[in-house]
Amino acid sequence: MLRAVIWGVTGYAGRELARILLGHPEVELAAAVSREPPSHHLAGVHPSFAALPGASRVPLLPADPAPDLTGIDVVFFALPHGASAVPAAAALEAGCRVVDLGADFRLRDPAVYEQWYGIRHPVPHLLEEAVYGLPEWTSRLYGGQDPLPQARLVAAPGCYPTGALLALLPLAAAGLVDPDSIVIDSKSGTSGAGRWPGDAFTFSEVDGSVRAYKVASHRHTPEIEQALGMAGCSGPVSFTPHLIPMSRGILTTAYARLAGGMNIEAGARAAAEAFAEAYAAAPFVHAAPPGAQPETAWVRGSNHAFYQVTADPRTGRLVITTAIDNLGKGAAGQAVQCMNRMFGLPETAGLDHGGLTP
């Protein structure tokens, strides 16, 4: 059994991570860490875990002083940006492997991190080592050999980038997309803003309304551009997120023109082949049924993703839609998927359940 610690367990992503790990057949959740623990054990802060075996035995430890990580195999960090870098470095020094669900290790260039997050990176020497943990693409993004089994430090992708990259990387890797033509429209449930996001995310503010936010300035933009660049498709993307009145899920629609003036019919066939090849062995990524478009209800509470590729002959564009759960494949589920690969476990361990519908 692997011994795991979750650092930052009171938020939505940390809670989802605890739920998954408590049911994982190969993991013992040894402890959880919180800045100001509201209880002495996990079930005390998340009453919904009361019936789960072992939840009341998982101690909830303060972050200061730093907990003893002796004998711990992997530490998950589910903290806001800027908060995980220093304790993650300490966990590595203690001999643990680290999976960070936050933004601190996703960008390779510390200057880009400072530009988009407004703070200097406290441990920039670790950025080059961090593996960008989109498991369906790690082998191809890193030259053909999967770096996850040897990785000490894994940066789990952001929720919006996950949906966008699952849609665009098959085209980018096959050289099918014009890099200057990419437009991404994503719609997310309110849990993506975190558990304490402020008054703008209360029920009265979001119910019955949809709004765009951080237009042309969202911090996930450089992450999307970086991963596409790793696949050979360098260029700026237009990314606009929207908030919709539901608790969880992300629906992404990506638009792109074909590279080199390729005929749309030929491009559509090539795109279909590229997606089929990219996800043939991916246990969590599925094509939507013919004629159907992905729905967030299909993936709620799971680590699964669905996609559909549509050719638009009138505009000469491909339109790709994806649906993920922002707390599942967009956060905690994907982090566990990375851990499974890191330790040589079956990739689906602890994650082999479908979406909750209705």
Structure overview:
The protein is an alpha/beta fold and 358 residues long. It folds into two domains: 2-129, 3-Layer(aba) Sandwich (Rossmann fold), CATH 3.40.50.720; 160-326, Dihydrodipicolinate Reductase, domain 2. The chain contains ten helices and 14 strands. It has helices spanning 12-22, 42-45, 85-93, 110-117, 138-141, 159-173, 203-206, 221-230, 264-278, 328-342; strands spanning 2-7, 27-34, 60-62, 74-77, 97-100, 131-132, 153-155, 183-188, 211-212, 238-243, 250-257, 285-287, 305-312, 317-324. The strands form two sheets. The protein has a seven-stranded parallel sheet, sandwiched between helices. Strands 9-10-8-11-14-13-12 form a seven-stranded mixed sheet. Helix 2 (42-45) links the parallel strand 2 (27-34) and strand 3. Helix 1 (12-22) crosses helix 10 (328-342) and helix 6 packs parallel to helix 8 (221-230). The longest helix has 15 residues, at 159-173.
Query: CATH superfamily of the largest domain, please?
Result: Dihydrodipicolinate Reductase, domain 2
Q: Estimate what percentage of residues fall within beta strands.
A: 15-25%
Helix content: 25-40%
The rounded Rg comes to 20 Å
**Strand ordering within the main sheet:** 3-2-1-4-5-7-6
- The gross shape turns out to be globular
Cα-to-Cα separation, first versus last residue: 34 Å
Number of helices: 10
**Oligomerization state of this entry?**
single chain
Elements, N to C (H/E): EHEHEEHEHEHEHEHEHEEHEEEH
Tell me what the CATH architecture of the largest domain is. Answer: 2-Layer Sandwich
Largest sheet: 7 strands, parallel
